[in-house]
């Protein structure tokens, strides 16, 4: 995982170096293209979720439960799981 992080950091540095050399007009083009890529990635992820059988119904139930206050904080769940493991 660390190699991936280092590779990403190196890539970001290279991108920054290249961006700093571009004219304002080219920067706008790059920005528009990045926005397009970001939207496309988000759309692809949404489509993957929608392919999961029952996902939409489960998601709607979860939204309704949240609206009605029928939720449990993650911290409470985490704390309870941690305590139960400590007693084993």
Structural notes for this entry:
There is one protein chain. This protein is an all-alpha fold. It has 2 domains: 51 residues; 36 residues, no CATH class. The chain is extended, with a radius of gyration of 22 Å. 0% of the residues are buried. The mean pLDDT is 88.
How would you concisely characterize the structure shown here?
The protein is mainly alpha-helical. It has helices at 2-20, 24-51, 55-67, 74-86.
List keywords for this structure.
extended, 2 domains, mainly alpha, 88 residues, 0% strand
What percent of residues are in strands?
A: under 5%
Domain module tally = 2
Q: By helix and strand content, what is the structural category?
A: mainly alpha
CA-based shape: extended
Radius of gyration: 22 Å
- Classify the helix fraction into a percent range: over 70%
Q: What's the mean pLDDT score?
A: 88
Are there runs of 5+ residues with pLDDT below 50, and where?
A: none
Q: How many DSSP-defined strands?
A: 0
Task: Give the termini separation.
Answer: 31 Å
Main β sheet profile: none
Element order: H for helix, E for strand: HHHH
Tally of helical runs: 4
Helices and strands in order, then pairings?
Blueprint lengths: L1 H19 L3 H28 L3 H13 L6 H13 L2
